[in-house]
Amino acid sequence: MSLRKILPLATSLPLFATASSRSIEAAALAGRPESELMERAGLAVARLALALQPHEGTIWVACGPGNNGGDGRIAARLLAAQGRRVHVGLDSPAEPVALTIDALLGLGLNRPPSTELAATIARIHALDAPVLAVDLPSGLLADTGIPVGAQAVHASHTLSLLTLKPGLFTAQGRAQAGQVWFDDLGVTSTAAPDALLLGRDAVLALPLDPAGATSHKGTQGDVLLIGGAAGMRGALLLAGRAALAAGAGRVYLRPLDDAAAELDAQRPELMHASRDTALAGKTIVAGCGGGAEIGQDLAPVIEHADRLVLDADGLNAVATDPLLRQALKSRNAPTILTPHPLEAARLLGRTVAEVQADRLRAARALADELGCTVVLKGSGSVVAAPGRLPAINTSGSAALATAGTGDVLAGWIGGLWAQLPRSEPAAIAAAAVHWHGHAGEIQAAGPLRAADLIERMHALHAWARGA
Q1: Residue 310 has what pLDDT?
Q2: Any idea which fold 201-464 has?
Q3: What distance in Å separates the CA atoms of residue 320 and residue 339, rounded to the nearest whole number?
Protein backbone atom coordinates (compact mmCIF):
# COMPACT_ATOMS: atom_id res chain seq x y z
CA MET A 1 0.00 0.00 0.00
CA SER A 2 1.17 3.55 -0.68
CA LEU A 3 -0.12 6.60 1.13
CA ARG A 4 0.73 9.85 -0.63
CA LYS A 5 -0.17 13.50 -0.59
CA ILE A 6 -1.60 14.52 -3.97
CA LEU A 7 -0.90 18.24 -4.24
CA PRO A 8 1.30 19.72 -5.54
CA LEU A 9 1.21 17.14 -8.32
CA ALA A 10 4.26 16.36 -10.44
CA THR A 11 2.77 13.69 -12.72
CA SER A 12 -0.78 13.65 -14.04
CA LEU A 13 -2.99 10.94 -12.54
CA PRO A 14 -6.13 9.08 -13.65
CA LEU A 15 -9.51 10.00 -12.19
CA PHE A 16 -12.38 7.54 -11.85
CA ALA A 17 -16.04 8.46 -11.46
CA THR A 18 -18.44 6.48 -9.27
CA ALA A 19 -19.33 3.76 -11.79
CA SER A 20 -15.70 3.14 -12.73
CA SER A 21 -14.63 3.12 -9.09
CA ARG A 22 -17.31 0.56 -8.31
CA SER A 23 -16.10 -1.63 -11.17
CA ILE A 24 -12.50 -1.44 -9.95
CA GLU A 25 -13.65 -2.31 -6.45
CA ALA A 26 -15.63 -5.30 -7.74
CA ALA A 27 -12.62 -6.56 -9.70
CA ALA A 28 -10.40 -6.15 -6.63
CA LEU A 29 -12.84 -8.15 -4.51
CA ALA A 30 -13.04 -11.03 -6.98
CA GLY A 31 -11.70 -14.13 -5.24
CA ARG A 32 -11.06 -12.43 -1.90
CA PRO A 33 -13.28 -11.52 1.07
CA GLU A 34 -14.66 -7.97 1.25
CA SER A 35 -13.24 -7.66 4.75
CA GLU A 36 -9.68 -7.81 3.37
CA LEU A 37 -10.07 -4.63 1.36
CA MET A 38 -11.91 -2.94 4.22
CA GLU A 39 -9.10 -3.84 6.62
CA ARG A 40 -6.63 -2.19 4.26
CA ALA A 41 -8.82 0.89 4.06
CA GLY A 42 -9.17 1.10 7.83
CA LEU A 43 -5.42 0.72 8.25
CA ALA A 44 -4.78 3.54 5.77
CA VAL A 45 -7.18 5.82 7.65
CA ALA A 46 -5.58 4.97 11.01
CA ARG A 47 -2.06 5.59 9.68
CA LEU A 48 -2.98 9.00 8.32
CA ALA A 49 -4.89 9.91 11.49
CA LEU A 50 -1.81 9.15 13.59
CA ALA A 51 0.38 11.21 11.27
CA LEU A 52 -2.02 14.15 11.45
CA GLN A 53 -2.60 13.91 15.21
CA PRO A 54 0.40 12.17 16.81
CA HIS A 55 -0.19 13.67 20.25
CA GLU A 56 -2.67 12.86 22.98
CA GLY A 57 -6.32 13.79 22.60
CA THR A 58 -9.62 12.20 21.75
CA ILE A 59 -10.25 11.10 18.16
CA TRP A 60 -13.93 11.12 17.25
CA VAL A 61 -14.79 8.62 14.53
CA ALA A 62 -18.21 9.53 13.15
CA CYS A 63 -19.38 6.34 11.40
CA GLY A 64 -22.29 5.91 9.02
CA PRO A 65 -24.12 2.68 8.18
CA GLY A 66 -22.30 1.59 4.99
CA ASN A 67 -18.81 0.59 3.87
CA ASN A 68 -17.52 4.06 4.69
CA GLY A 69 -18.62 3.53 8.27
CA GLY A 70 -17.00 0.08 8.21
CA ASP A 71 -13.67 1.66 7.23
CA GLY A 72 -14.08 4.08 10.11
CA ARG A 73 -14.80 1.36 12.65
CA ILE A 74 -11.69 -0.58 11.64
CA ALA A 75 -9.63 2.61 11.91
CA ALA A 76 -11.09 3.20 15.38
CA ARG A 77 -10.10 -0.30 16.49
CA LEU A 78 -6.56 0.13 15.19
CA LEU A 79 -6.21 3.55 16.79
CA ALA A 80 -7.39 2.20 20.14
CA ALA A 81 -4.83 -0.59 19.84
CA GLN A 82 -2.18 2.13 19.57
CA GLY A 83 -3.33 3.53 22.89
CA ARG A 84 -5.32 6.45 21.50
CA ARG A 85 -8.54 7.57 23.13
CA VAL A 86 -11.29 6.96 20.57
CA HIS A 87 -14.97 7.86 20.55
CA VAL A 88 -17.16 6.11 17.95
CA GLY A 89 -20.69 7.29 17.19
CA LEU A 90 -22.89 9.92 15.62
CA ASP A 91 -22.84 12.13 18.71
CA SER A 92 -19.72 14.09 19.54
CA PRO A 93 -17.92 13.18 22.78
CA ALA A 94 -18.19 15.27 25.92
CA GLU A 95 -14.46 15.90 26.09
CA PRO A 96 -12.45 18.09 23.67
CA VAL A 97 -11.75 16.50 20.29
CA ALA A 98 -8.25 16.54 18.78
CA LEU A 99 -9.27 15.05 15.42
CA THR A 100 -12.58 14.09 13.81
CA ILE A 101 -12.71 11.25 11.29
CA ASP A 102 -15.65 11.65 8.92
CA ALA A 103 -16.75 8.11 7.95
CA LEU A 104 -20.44 8.93 7.48
CA LEU A 105 -21.06 8.72 3.73
CA GLY A 106 -18.82 7.71 0.86
CA LEU A 107 -18.99 6.75 -2.79
CA GLY A 108 -22.31 6.49 -4.56
CA LEU A 109 -24.17 9.18 -2.63
CA ASN A 110 -27.16 10.32 -4.68
CA ARG A 111 -29.47 11.99 -2.18
CA PRO A 112 -29.15 14.43 0.73
CA PRO A 113 -27.92 13.00 4.03
CA SER A 114 -30.64 11.79 6.38
CA THR A 115 -31.79 14.06 9.17
CA GLU A 116 -29.70 12.08 11.63
CA LEU A 117 -26.52 12.26 9.53
CA ALA A 118 -27.10 15.93 8.72
CA ALA A 119 -27.22 16.61 12.46
CA THR A 120 -23.87 14.84 12.85
CA ILE A 121 -22.36 16.95 10.06
CA ALA A 122 -23.53 20.05 11.93
CA ARG A 123 -21.85 18.73 15.11
CA ILE A 124 -18.60 18.17 13.19
CA HIS A 125 -18.66 21.76 11.98
CA ALA A 126 -19.39 23.05 15.48
CA LEU A 127 -16.12 21.64 16.81
CA ASP A 128 -12.82 23.46 16.60
CA ALA A 129 -10.92 20.38 15.45
CA PRO A 130 -9.34 19.24 12.16
CA VAL A 131 -11.41 16.81 10.11
CA LEU A 132 -10.14 13.79 8.15
CA ALA A 133 -12.73 12.62 5.61
CA VAL A 134 -12.69 8.97 4.52
CA ASP A 135 -12.76 8.70 0.70
CA LEU A 136 -14.95 11.81 0.28
CA PRO A 137 -16.26 14.56 2.53
CA SER A 138 -19.71 13.28 3.49
CA GLY A 139 -22.40 14.89 1.36
CA LEU A 140 -20.09 15.66 -1.60
CA LEU A 141 -20.80 14.04 -4.97
CA ALA A 142 -17.81 12.03 -6.19
CA ASP A 143 -18.33 12.82 -9.87
CA THR A 144 -19.04 16.56 -9.75
CA GLY A 145 -17.77 18.11 -6.53
CA ILE A 146 -21.24 19.40 -5.70
CA PRO A 147 -22.74 19.01 -2.20
CA VAL A 148 -26.06 17.21 -1.94
CA GLY A 149 -28.47 18.84 0.44
CA ALA A 150 -27.85 21.79 2.71
CA GLN A 151 -24.18 21.11 3.37
CA ALA A 152 -21.31 18.68 3.08
CA VAL A 153 -18.51 18.08 5.53
CA HIS A 154 -15.79 20.70 5.25
CA ALA A 155 -12.68 18.58 5.70
CA SER A 156 -9.15 19.62 6.55
CA HIS A 157 -7.86 16.44 4.87
CA THR A 158 -9.46 13.78 2.67
CA LEU A 159 -8.05 10.30 2.15
CA SER A 160 -9.29 9.00 -1.20
CA LEU A 161 -9.24 5.22 -1.24
CA LEU A 162 -8.66 2.83 -4.15
CA THR A 163 -9.27 5.54 -6.80
CA LEU A 164 -9.08 9.31 -7.10
CA LYS A 165 -12.49 10.89 -7.71
CA PRO A 166 -13.07 13.91 -9.98
CA GLY A 167 -15.31 15.67 -7.48
CA LEU A 168 -12.42 16.19 -5.09
CA PHE A 169 -10.71 18.57 -7.51
CA THR A 170 -13.33 20.75 -9.18
CA ALA A 171 -16.37 22.89 -8.31
CA GLN A 172 -16.77 23.01 -4.52
CA GLY A 173 -14.74 19.85 -4.04
CA ARG A 174 -11.42 21.64 -3.69
CA ALA A 175 -12.71 23.73 -0.79
CA GLN A 176 -14.60 20.87 0.86
CA ALA A 177 -11.82 18.27 0.65
CA GLY A 178 -8.88 20.26 2.00
CA GLN A 179 -5.55 18.49 1.47
CA VAL A 180 -6.19 15.33 -0.55
CA TRP A 181 -4.30 12.11 0.16
CA PHE A 182 -4.49 8.84 -1.74
CA ASP A 183 -4.02 5.16 -0.98
CA ASP A 184 -4.63 2.58 -3.74
CA LEU A 185 -5.02 -0.15 -1.10
CA GLY A 186 -2.49 -2.24 -2.96
CA VAL A 187 -4.80 -2.61 -5.97
CA THR A 188 -3.40 -2.11 -9.48
CA SER A 189 -6.02 -1.48 -12.14
CA THR A 190 -5.77 -1.15 -15.91
CA ALA A 191 -9.27 0.32 -16.24
CA ALA A 192 -9.66 3.31 -18.52
CA PRO A 193 -9.99 6.53 -16.52
CA ASP A 194 -12.86 8.99 -16.87
CA ALA A 195 -10.59 12.04 -16.70
CA LEU A 196 -7.04 13.12 -15.90
CA LEU A 197 -5.71 15.18 -13.04
CA LEU A 198 -3.18 17.63 -14.46
CA GLY A 199 0.27 17.88 -12.90
CA ARG A 200 3.45 19.73 -13.73
CA ASP A 201 4.22 17.23 -16.48
CA ALA A 202 1.57 18.98 -18.59
CA VAL A 203 3.96 21.94 -18.75
CA LEU A 204 7.16 19.92 -19.07
CA ALA A 205 5.68 18.05 -22.05
CA LEU A 206 5.95 21.18 -24.21
CA PRO A 207 9.32 21.42 -26.01
CA LEU A 208 10.06 24.91 -24.70
CA ASP A 209 13.81 24.73 -25.21
CA PRO A 210 15.75 28.00 -25.17
CA ALA A 211 16.07 29.53 -28.60
CA GLY A 212 18.99 28.19 -30.63
CA ALA A 213 21.81 30.19 -32.15
CA THR A 214 19.94 30.60 -35.43
CA SER A 215 16.61 31.59 -33.85
CA HIS A 216 15.16 35.07 -34.18
CA LYS A 217 11.87 36.79 -33.48
CA GLY A 218 10.38 35.45 -36.68
CA THR A 219 10.95 31.84 -35.65
CA GLN A 220 9.22 32.31 -32.28
CA GLY A 221 5.82 32.97 -33.81
CA ASP A 222 3.49 35.93 -34.20
CA VAL A 223 0.43 36.71 -32.08
CA LEU A 224 -2.30 39.14 -33.12
CA LEU A 225 -4.69 40.23 -30.38
CA ILE A 226 -8.05 41.77 -31.25
CA GLY A 227 -10.14 43.46 -28.57
CA GLY A 228 -9.94 46.50 -26.32
CA ALA A 229 -13.16 48.34 -27.09
CA ALA A 230 -13.72 51.78 -25.57
CA GLY A 231 -13.20 51.67 -21.82
CA MET A 232 -11.78 48.12 -21.90
CA ARG A 233 -8.38 48.58 -23.50
CA GLY A 234 -6.64 47.29 -20.36
CA ALA A 235 -7.82 43.75 -21.10
CA LEU A 236 -6.14 43.85 -24.51
CA LEU A 237 -2.90 45.21 -23.03
CA LEU A 238 -2.80 42.51 -20.36
CA ALA A 239 -3.34 39.76 -22.93
CA GLY A 240 -0.68 41.27 -25.18
CA ARG A 241 1.86 41.53 -22.38
CA ALA A 242 1.14 37.91 -21.44
CA ALA A 243 1.69 36.68 -25.01
CA LEU A 244 5.00 38.54 -25.08
CA ALA A 245 6.09 37.17 -21.69
CA ALA A 246 5.17 33.64 -22.78
CA GLY A 247 7.82 33.87 -25.49
CA ALA A 248 6.09 34.85 -28.71
CA GLY A 249 8.47 36.50 -31.17
CA ARG A 250 6.21 39.35 -32.25
CA VAL A 251 2.97 40.52 -30.64
CA TYR A 252 0.55 42.86 -32.39
CA LEU A 253 -2.42 44.65 -30.80
CA ARG A 254 -5.49 45.60 -32.81
CA PRO A 255 -7.69 47.72 -30.53
CA LEU A 256 -11.35 48.10 -31.43
CA ASP A 257 -11.33 51.59 -29.94
CA ASP A 258 -10.26 53.75 -32.88
CA ALA A 259 -9.31 56.55 -30.49
CA ALA A 260 -6.71 54.35 -28.81
CA ALA A 261 -3.82 54.91 -31.18
CA GLU A 262 -1.14 54.98 -28.49
CA LEU A 263 0.67 51.78 -27.63
CA ASP A 264 1.70 50.34 -24.26
CA ALA A 265 4.30 52.70 -22.78
CA GLN A 266 5.42 50.06 -20.29
CA ARG A 267 5.89 47.43 -23.01
CA PRO A 268 7.05 49.23 -26.18
CA GLU A 269 7.79 45.81 -27.68
CA LEU A 270 4.06 45.48 -28.37
CA MET A 271 3.25 46.60 -31.91
CA HIS A 272 0.15 48.22 -33.35
CA ALA A 273 -1.91 46.42 -36.00
CA SER A 274 -4.57 47.84 -38.27
CA ARG A 275 -7.71 46.16 -39.58
CA ASP A 276 -5.74 45.44 -42.77
CA THR A 277 -3.07 43.41 -40.96
CA ALA A 278 -2.90 39.92 -42.43
CA LEU A 279 -4.23 37.08 -40.31
CA ALA A 280 -2.42 34.26 -42.06
CA GLY A 281 0.43 32.63 -40.18
CA LYS A 282 -0.45 34.27 -36.87
CA THR A 283 -2.01 32.95 -33.70
CA ILE A 284 -5.09 35.10 -33.13
CA VAL A 285 -6.40 35.92 -29.65
CA ALA A 286 -9.78 37.60 -29.97
CA GLY A 287 -12.26 38.97 -27.49
CA CYS A 288 -10.31 40.37 -24.52
CA GLY A 289 -12.18 43.55 -23.64
CA GLY A 290 -13.99 43.27 -26.95
CA GLY A 291 -17.40 44.59 -25.90
CA ALA A 292 -20.24 44.44 -28.39
CA GLU A 293 -17.93 45.66 -31.15
CA ILE A 294 -15.99 42.39 -31.38
CA GLY A 295 -18.89 40.69 -33.13
CA GLN A 296 -18.38 42.88 -36.19
CA ASP A 297 -14.79 41.68 -36.59
CA LEU A 298 -15.16 37.98 -35.83
CA ALA A 299 -16.46 36.56 -39.12
CA PRO A 300 -13.20 36.97 -41.11
CA VAL A 301 -11.16 35.99 -38.07
CA ILE A 302 -13.06 32.74 -37.64
CA GLU A 303 -12.79 32.03 -41.34
CA HIS A 304 -9.09 32.79 -41.88
CA ALA A 305 -7.20 32.38 -38.58
CA ASP A 306 -4.76 29.48 -38.64
CA ARG A 307 -4.99 29.20 -34.83
CA LEU A 308 -7.64 30.98 -32.80
CA VAL A 309 -8.00 31.63 -29.09
CA LEU A 310 -11.49 32.98 -28.39
CA ASP A 311 -12.11 34.64 -25.04
CA ALA A 312 -14.56 36.86 -23.15
CA ASP A 313 -16.75 39.00 -25.44
CA GLY A 314 -15.69 36.94 -28.43
CA LEU A 315 -17.48 34.01 -26.80
CA ASN A 316 -20.52 36.15 -26.02
CA ALA A 317 -20.71 37.19 -29.67
CA VAL A 318 -20.72 33.55 -30.79
CA ALA A 319 -23.40 32.74 -28.22
CA THR A 320 -25.77 35.39 -29.59
CA ASP A 321 -25.04 35.22 -33.35
CA PRO A 322 -26.12 31.97 -35.10
CA LEU A 323 -23.98 32.77 -38.16
CA LEU A 324 -20.82 33.16 -36.08
CA ARG A 325 -21.66 29.99 -34.19
CA GLN A 326 -22.04 28.02 -37.41
CA ALA A 327 -18.83 29.50 -38.79
CA LEU A 328 -16.99 28.40 -35.67
CA LYS A 329 -18.39 24.87 -35.94
CA SER A 330 -17.34 24.73 -39.59
CA ARG A 331 -13.75 25.87 -39.06
CA ASN A 332 -11.08 23.61 -40.49
CA ALA A 333 -8.40 25.03 -38.20
CA PRO A 334 -7.86 24.55 -34.45
CA THR A 335 -9.58 26.75 -31.88
CA ILE A 336 -9.28 27.12 -28.11
CA LEU A 337 -12.19 28.61 -26.17
CA THR A 338 -11.62 29.99 -22.65
CA PRO A 339 -15.05 30.57 -21.05
CA HIS A 340 -15.83 31.20 -17.43
CA PRO A 341 -19.05 29.49 -16.22
CA LEU A 342 -21.39 32.30 -17.31
CA GLU A 343 -19.90 32.39 -20.81
CA ALA A 344 -20.10 28.61 -21.03
CA ALA A 345 -23.73 28.75 -19.93
CA ARG A 346 -24.56 31.23 -22.69
CA LEU A 347 -22.86 29.05 -25.30
CA LEU A 348 -24.68 25.93 -24.10
CA GLY A 349 -28.07 27.58 -23.59
CA ARG A 350 -28.02 26.57 -19.91
CA THR A 351 -27.88 28.29 -16.56
CA VAL A 352 -24.67 28.84 -14.63
CA ALA A 353 -25.99 26.49 -11.97
CA GLU A 354 -26.42 23.74 -14.57
CA VAL A 355 -22.87 24.23 -15.83
CA GLN A 356 -21.41 24.20 -12.33
CA ALA A 357 -23.48 21.16 -11.34
CA ASP A 358 -21.31 19.01 -13.65
CA ARG A 359 -18.32 20.92 -14.92
CA LEU A 360 -16.73 17.95 -16.69
CA ARG A 361 -19.90 17.18 -18.60
CA ALA A 362 -20.43 20.83 -19.52
CA ALA A 363 -16.89 21.24 -20.84
CA ARG A 364 -17.15 18.03 -22.88
CA ALA A 365 -20.53 19.05 -24.27
CA LEU A 366 -19.21 22.44 -25.36
CA ALA A 367 -16.09 20.92 -26.94
CA ASP A 368 -18.14 18.37 -28.88
CA GLU A 369 -20.80 20.87 -29.93
CA LEU A 370 -18.39 23.44 -31.35
CA GLY A 371 -15.51 21.14 -32.32
CA CYS A 372 -13.04 23.13 -30.20
CA THR A 373 -10.71 22.71 -27.27
CA VAL A 374 -12.39 24.23 -24.21
CA VAL A 375 -10.92 25.61 -21.00
CA LEU A 376 -13.79 25.92 -18.53
CA LYS A 377 -12.29 28.27 -15.98
CA GLY A 378 -12.97 28.22 -12.26
CA SER A 379 -11.97 26.18 -9.25
CA GLY A 380 -10.46 23.08 -10.82
CA SER A 381 -10.42 24.38 -14.41
CA VAL A 382 -11.42 21.74 -16.94
CA VAL A 383 -9.68 21.23 -20.30
CA ALA A 384 -11.79 19.28 -22.80
CA ALA A 385 -11.42 18.49 -26.49
CA PRO A 386 -13.31 16.23 -28.92
CA GLY A 387 -12.10 12.65 -28.71
CA ARG A 388 -9.81 13.25 -25.72
CA LEU A 389 -10.06 12.59 -22.01
CA PRO A 390 -11.04 15.74 -20.15
CA ALA A 391 -8.52 17.00 -17.62
CA ILE A 392 -8.90 18.85 -14.32
CA ASN A 393 -6.17 21.29 -13.37
CA THR A 394 -4.67 21.02 -9.89
CA SER A 395 -2.85 24.34 -9.61
CA GLY A 396 -4.28 27.71 -8.64
CA SER A 397 -5.71 29.55 -5.68
CA ALA A 398 -8.25 32.20 -4.78
CA ALA A 399 -5.56 34.80 -5.52
CA LEU A 400 -6.45 34.41 -9.22
CA ALA A 401 -9.99 35.68 -8.59
CA THR A 402 -9.10 39.25 -9.59
CA ALA A 403 -9.85 41.36 -12.64
CA GLY A 404 -7.76 40.62 -15.71
CA THR A 405 -6.32 37.23 -14.80
CA GLY A 406 -8.49 35.59 -17.47
CA ASP A 407 -7.08 37.97 -20.09
CA VAL A 408 -3.60 36.95 -18.96
CA LEU A 409 -4.45 33.28 -19.48
CA ALA A 410 -5.81 33.90 -22.98
CA GLY A 411 -2.70 35.83 -23.97
CA TRP A 412 -0.41 33.19 -22.46
CA ILE A 413 -2.14 30.45 -24.44
CA GLY A 414 -1.62 32.49 -27.59
CA GLY A 415 2.05 33.10 -26.79
CA LEU A 416 2.79 29.40 -26.21
CA TRP A 417 0.82 28.31 -29.27
CA ALA A 418 2.64 30.78 -31.54
CA GLN A 419 5.96 29.15 -30.62
CA LEU A 420 4.61 25.61 -31.05
CA PRO A 421 2.06 25.90 -33.86
CA ARG A 422 2.01 22.15 -34.57
CA SER A 423 1.26 21.15 -30.97
CA GLU A 424 -2.13 19.77 -30.02
CA PRO A 425 -4.37 22.62 -28.82
CA ALA A 426 -5.37 20.59 -25.75
CA ALA A 427 -1.70 20.20 -24.78
CA ILE A 428 -1.12 23.94 -25.18
CA ALA A 429 -4.23 24.74 -23.12
CA ALA A 430 -3.34 22.28 -20.36
CA ALA A 431 0.19 23.63 -20.04
CA ALA A 432 -0.94 27.24 -19.97
CA VAL A 433 -3.64 26.58 -17.38
CA HIS A 434 -1.28 24.72 -15.05
CA TRP A 435 1.44 27.38 -15.47
CA HIS A 436 -1.08 30.17 -14.81
CA GLY A 437 -2.39 28.38 -11.72
CA HIS A 438 1.06 27.70 -10.32
CA ALA A 439 1.93 31.39 -10.53
CA GLY A 440 -1.22 32.11 -8.56
CA GLU A 441 -0.03 29.88 -5.71
CA ILE A 442 3.10 31.88 -4.93
CA GLN A 443 2.68 33.63 -1.60
CA ALA A 444 2.77 37.41 -1.64
CA ALA A 445 1.50 40.26 0.46
CA GLY A 446 -1.74 41.80 -0.73
CA PRO A 447 -4.04 41.00 -3.66
CA LEU A 448 -2.58 39.57 -6.86
CA ARG A 449 -2.91 42.09 -9.67
CA ALA A 450 -3.10 40.76 -13.21
CA ALA A 451 -0.07 42.72 -14.42
CA ASP A 452 1.97 41.25 -11.54
CA LEU A 453 0.71 37.78 -12.45
CA ILE A 454 2.34 38.14 -15.87
CA GLU A 455 5.70 38.85 -14.26
CA ARG A 456 5.29 35.85 -11.96
CA MET A 457 4.55 33.62 -14.93
CA HIS A 458 7.51 35.02 -16.85
CA ALA A 459 9.79 34.23 -13.89
CA LEU A 460 8.69 30.58 -14.07
CA HIS A 461 10.23 29.82 -17.47
CA ALA A 462 13.06 27.82 -15.88
CA TRP A 463 10.48 25.89 -13.81
CA ALA A 464 8.56 25.16 -17.00
CA ARG A 465 11.69 23.61 -18.52
CA GLY A 466 12.30 21.34 -15.58
CA ALA A 467 14.77 23.39 -13.54
Answers
A1: 98
A2: UDP-N-acetylmuramoyl-L-alanine:D-glutamate ligase (3.40.1190)
A3: 15
